[in-house]
Amino acid sequence: MSDETISPPHDGQNLADFCMQNVIHHIRTGQLKPGEWINVEKLARELAVSPTPLRESLPRLEAEGFVVKNTNRGFSVASLVGGAGFDSAFAMRELLEPEAAYLTAQNCTDDMIEALAASIDVFTQTARELELGTAHPLNRELTEADAIFHDILADNCGNHLLSQSIHRMRAHLHLHAYPFTHEEASEVSREHSAILEALRHHDSDAAREAMSQHIIAARQRMRSFYPI
Description:
globular; mainly alpha
C-alpha cells in the first residue's frame, strides 16, 4: 500500500488511537483512495499491530465520516464529498484555517518559514513541468507540498482542537485526488507566497486575510471536480 515508514506508537499510546491516526493519514495522502475497501489484515501488518485495535478504530472512523460500513464486506473509505457536503466542508475550512494562520503568525520561526518556502518551491517547479507536459496532473509531490504547507500552520497554531479539526476537514475532502493544471499550480504558489509573506513579518491580520482569500479561491477552483 505504501513505502512510507510508519512511526511506531509511542509509549502508553492507545493502539486504537494509533490505528485511527494512521488510517486518517493514509486517506489524506491518497494511500487509501475514495471507495477503496480496507483490508484489515494487510493494513494491520503494515502498521505492525494486531488486527484487533485496527478493527476497534473503524467504528470511530465511521462516526467521523472517514469510512463507511458495507454489509458483509467490512469497511471502505468514504467516497468524495459532493454538493452540500463539499460546500459545508469548505465553509468550515474558511472558518478554521484563517484563524490558524492568524495564531501561527504570532510565533512563526525561521525553521517554519524555510519549510513553508520549500513547499512553495515545489508548486512553482511543478507548475513549469505541468506546462511542459513532463508532470502528471495527479502529482504526489504537489499534494504532499500542499499538505505540508497547511499542516505547518495547523500544527503550530497553539490550539490542539483547532489543529485536529483542520486535519480532519482536509481529509474528508480527499484533496490528494484533485488534478492540478499548470495555471492552478501557479495560482496556489502565489496564494501560498502571500500567506508566507505575512508570516515572515508576524502580521497576524494579513496572514488571516491571505489564508481566507486562498481558501475562497481553492473552493472556486475545485468545485467542478466534486460530484454534484
